[in-house]
Amino acid sequence: MKQQHRTVRADCMEAVSARWSEESLVHLLIAAAGSGRRMGAECNKLLLPLAGSRCVLLEPPFESLPLHWEQILFEVAGRGFKILIAHPERCAQLAQQPMLVERLLETGVYLQVNWTSLLGYHGKLVQKTAHHLARSGAIHCMATDSHNTRERSALIVRRGAEELAALVGRKNLALLTVENPARVLNGNGMQNIDMTALPQLRRGKPAGWSLFRDWFGLRRG
Fold it and tell me: Is residue 188 exposed (0-12), middle (13-18) or buried (19+ Cβ within 10 Å)?
């Protein structure tokens, strides 16, 4: 098993090096995301789906989306994969230009937000963005992003669950934490937040409506 792991890692690094020399961002990202599943005729196009499904997790840089990001998504989706974007709330460009979130969603991708972002561990702007994504119905699942158990313990998830329930309601909390992750494991597409199940603000308007309007620069006529 260890020898197989080393071979897969070597294949991945070789693919990254090859694509880097070609200066192809699309192929570089695809190669770097992979380890083990060979794609098409070229053996150095590698992707690692989640739990053997047809869903791949792509992580944008913290500063901005890469050049030609729409082409990257098109390339991956064109190979029959569903795309889950990791912690979009931590990408400064998406936080500052929220209409880009709409463009991302229009390509058919799903969004995964970190519990730590929701709780303010990465600053006020990231927290505000995470809250807006939740209340506008843009989130499809949550993640611990657990690089270790010291800063990201189970207690964070418990606290985050209460925070998320206050934003989107208990029904949607179950959707984002249990039902949609199960759909990924079963190879099915994820469902959107039920906007009718959001905690009510006033006169029947869901809690996130005014935030969604303000965030995306919309105004009443």
Answer: middle
